[in-house]
Amino acid sequence: MNKKVISVGLIGYGTVGRGVVKILEENQKIAFRKVGKPIKIKSICDLKPIDKTELYVNNFKSIIKDPEIDLIVELIGGYEPARTIILEALKAGKNVVTANKAVLAKYWDQIFTAAQNCQKSIYYEASVGGVIPVVQGLSEGLASEEILEIKGILNGTTNFILTEMTQNGVSYQDALKSAQNAGFAEADPSFDVNGIDTANKLAILSSLAWGGWVKVKDISTKGISDLKIDDVLIAKKFGYDIKLIGSAQKTKDGLDLSVQPCLVHHDNAFATVEKEYNAVMITGKDSGDVLFYGKGAGQQPAASAVVSDIINLSKFIVTNTAGIVPDVIYDKRKKIKILPSGRSKSPYYLRFKVSDKPGVLAKISGILGKYKVSIASLSQPNADDSEAQIVIITHDTLKENFEKALKQIDATKSIVKSKTVKIKIEN
Amino acid sequence: MNKKVISVGLIGYGTVGRGVVKILEENQKIAFRKVGKPIKIKSICDLKPIDKTELYVNNFKSIIKDPEIDLIVELIGGYEPARTIILEALKAGKNVVTANKAVLAKYWDQIFTAAQNCQKSIYYEASVGGVIPVVQGLSEGLASEEILEIKGILNGTTNFILTEMTQNGVSYQDALKSAQNAGFAEADPSFDVNGIDTANKLAILSSLAWGGWVKVKDISTKGISDLKIDDVLIAKKFGYDIKLIGSAQKTKDGLDLSVQPCLVHHDNAFATVEKEYNAVMITGKDSGDVLFYGKGAGQQPAASAVVSDIINLSKFIVTNTAGIVPDVIYDKRKKIKILPSGRSKSPYYLRFKVSDKPGVLAKISGILGKYKVSIASLSQPNADDSEAQIVIITHDTLKENFEKALKQIDATKSIVKSKTVKIKIEN
């Protein structure tokens, strides 16, 4: 190949896009040493004009059509036109780097089938875990493994909010404001705080680990926006932090997939993951536990991961070998069996706001017992508003039994005054 | 390529070699899904006959000469004939997988120059950190980064011994016996306990990070074999564990390279790394801290990493693209500047066995002051043998000043009764 430079077309010039341009400029010697040719950004497309006027184009199609461009970086996020850009770029013979977890999780089948058919590469390390190289760690580093479990704190925004709540005892709303002020939450944080972003990332890791297509809709997903500071503080007294955990576990009856706030004991490695940091624990049959940890949000970490992808892919572009070895081994025919969410088993934390009458505890424990929910410990902490409350930690419980019990308890107004709080406890 | 199978020649049938054969058999479906062809071990060479008689050959040269073999796995360890095997295999057009950190660290220049000249690949993920994919994480995952620091617990044997000493309060000798019984220390553990194995791994990571050849002789290396249980227990009371840390830090005057036992505070992530586990923290300018953690010793984790390398390399062999993109970007001309070990700065833990006479403390602090060693805290714990002792934690100190002070103190028999114990404190 006689190209003198690797030409990059960048689509999306937001926070991460600007970070990519900055790092590519600052670290051009590092990139050159690894690729053997300079990497240059030839065009940048964004909805509105940008400071780098000489590179600006207002239509992504002109980037895709440009025969000089080798590699397209998609950083606009969301489903459309991101999906169109990626598919059109592959068809036009371009290699692609993206940080877009939403489009990958939703169109996994379409995107990786297109990449295989076009024999082009799509790198997406920045889509999961920010700067942590967990996509590669899972798909190549643990290539030989039968993966048993993937568990992670995969969203920097929610982890920042939960850390604020835990460390400063502030409400969810106040913690969200702190995260927004620190630049770790967007004006509309709903995709982060409702768990969708974590579910997208878990779907990507699970699809990689088990070689089929694990869909976001198969993941039982609950966010943190209705989490009460009371529960954070009570959990803390019991030796737990609350973290938003994405979890995929291989069971004999199918994959057990969930995203939910969980009580994590202080001894657990996840409890030490604070602020915008992420961590992913992958358990293989022969490897045992392997943990990856690093910054999951922020301009520099995200942009760093994108630039690493650009460099790694450029090495193959220079030697005319990009896309020959598929990056994702995806077999359309492989069906992944999913465990129905009710069949999931774990211990739970329950907080009941109760009527302060005799016999209430007996009634609660009676109903729990009827549905085989076994109590590990029970306490009656003082509530600030001086309402009576009961906190119960259960043993391992089948989710469907447990929900039936709670439904019955919550329907009985003579027992509880409001909906019972339930939070999974991480083993 | 019309090959029906990927043919592997295995040289070295010890613990890890047997693990490789077992995992390749058990996980052949996983391997096939990723490679698209079956991987078969065609020949195994070892010094003495093996149970798999149909595969046994007694001379590695017949494996290297075999035109059907695509990939040679070197698992004999040590310098020779490992070096010859790797170089001859590359020359014969074979790709290579090795777990041999000693040969890589010592012959980095020769081996990677040969790989580039022969356009063949050499994968060596299992050589550092056992099952942890840190070689790839550093060279690809953090490809865009200016690496500022690498720090790691890189030897499972010594970490197992140190964990035994810390948790059970036993002597080095007893802890070593436990490690041998548990299968985590060899009959002759000297390469592990004297720090050489850690230095080999640090040299590999540093060479990768800074793109030149960092030699083992440039790493100031101290092992754990003269570590006293007294210091482990005193450190514990002060809130520290003792760990063998390999550290490479970029400073304006060159790389600061060391392997030594260090006091690590209980708040530090390294303090939670127990038994045979390893951990590596890599700090990049844009990425910040990225941590990798997993099993650093044991048959299955080591063999798993080797098989992952075999699978990843086979994907390129199948498509005739192995070795086209060099695995290690090594530039012979790049000189790495090394900081003289005396110019290294850190706080220290000191334990003096002193004469129980008035004025001793004044003399010690006088000499320390003369050489600009500033005391952060001082205490006089009871020694079991009822000898008087003084423990001092210093502020950041230039190593050469500090050693001059200790030399003078240790030479003064009226002050100390035996050689002063000094251990670096991790910041």
Largest sheet of chain A: 10 strands, mixed
Form type of chain A: elongated
The number of distinct helices of chain A, counting runs of at least 4 residues, comes to 15
Number of strands of chain A: 18
Multimeric state: homodimer
Architecture of the largest domain in chain A, according to CATH?
2-Layer Sandwich
- Compute the average pLDDT of chain A: 95
Which short descriptors sum up this protein?
homodimer; alpha/beta; Dihydrodipicolinate Reductase, domain 2; Alpha-Beta Plaits; ten-stranded mixed sheet; six-stranded parallel sheet; 18 strands
What does this structure look like?
2 copies of one chain form a homodimer. Chain A is an alpha/beta fold and 427 residues long. Chain A has 3 domains: 6-130 and 299-318, NAD(P)-binding Rossmann-like Domain (Rossmann fold); 134-295, Dihydrodipicolinate Reductase, domain 2 (2-Layer Sandwich); 343-425, 2-Layer Sandwich (Alpha-Beta Plaits), CATH 3.30.70.260. Helix content of chain A is 37%, strand content 24%. The first copy, chain A, is built from 15 helices and 18 strands. In chain A, the strands form 3 sheets. In chain A, strands 7, 8, 9, 10, 11, 12, 14, 15, 16 and 18 form a 10-stranded mixed β-sheet that branches. A 6-stranded parallel β-sheet of chain A has the order 3-2-1-4-5-6, sandwiched between helices. In chain A, strand 11 and strand 12 (288-295) form a beta hairpin. Chain A is elongated.
